[in-house]
Amino acid sequence: MSPLLSVRGVHKTYTSAKRSTVVALEDVDLDVGEGEIVALIGPSGCGKSTLLRMMAGLDTDFEGDLDWSVPPRPGKDIGFVFQEPALLPWRTVRRNVALGLEAQRDTSEQGREQVANLLDLVGLTDFADSFPKELSGGMRQRTAIARALAYNPRILLMDEPFGALDAITRDRLHDDLLRIWETTHKTIVLVTHSVEEATYLADRVAVMSARPGRIKAIHTVPLDRDRTPETRQLPEFAKFSGMLRQELV
Ligand SMILES: Nc1ncnc2c1ncn2[C@@H]1O[C@H](COP(=O)(O)OP(=O)(O)OP(=O)(O)O)[C@@H](O)[C@H]1O
């Protein structure tokens, strides 16, 4: 698989206002293949969000290289989904999803169609004219995912996107994301604390060590790409997620 993004020798140090320094990332190398779902797991504070923010271009103050097969266009090629959906409360679901297109002054019929297709993809067509406060937590996060996909980014970066949801909603959103992937084949980098989430969703899982964050191991998930709720019951699923859990301690 050809890498869409190669992270090479990345090193990141934060300096606080009091001049103390924190080495957040050290010698990080990681390839993200085109169309691949890569999960990043690791103990709290190991630098997962820092790495994702670098990939998003939100943090450019680091040593090392991010080599893209094609350099991403700012605000166009990278979609970001955070733990909190951060929707605009005065906009309807449809207009929240259309936000990125509006920012690019895309008011075309094609743009409107794209929004309608995305609402359909995330199962929110019937709520297109609802406001965020009228939605459940899962629906809000679906809206955020549709918004991130609206301008058709080449890569979707997700930072604990399901972390604030209850277990049943989370499982549903996992299946939604897999369905979205089947339709779009988007490259996805997913930061998660959950070894089960990483196992269910990812093609490969990068395990990071505690601070300073390094990539400790990269594992290919030994499951068919075609995952269904039954996959969670397979012995390979339990074995692989158990192995990841062991690696985290
Ligand atoms: N803006 C900042 N200024 C100073 N230190 C920071 C800053 N952002 C993060 N850090 C430090 O860098 C390290 C990595 O933080 P980061 O948020 O990337 O970790 P994480 O793995 O995403 O954590 P968590 O799983 O708890 O969300 C932590 O020690 C954190 O305190």
TrEMBL record:
Entry keyword annotation includes tRNA-binding = no
PANTHER family reported for this sequence: ALIPHATIC SULFONATES IMPORT ATP-BINDING PROTEIN SSUB (PTHR42788:SF13), TAURINE IMPORT ATP-BINDING PROTEIN-RELATED (PTHR42788)
Which InterPro entries does the entry link to?
A: AAA+_ATPase, ABC_transporter-like_ATP-bd, ABC_transporter_ATP-bind, P-loop_NTPase
Q: Which domain of life is it from?
A: Bacteria
Q: What is this protein called?
A: ABC transporter ATP-binding protein
ABC transporter domain location = 5-235
Q: Name one GO molecular function term.
A: ATP binding
Q: Does the keyword ATP-binding apply?
A: yes
Q: Which UniProt keywords apply?
A: ATP-binding, Nucleotide-binding, Transport
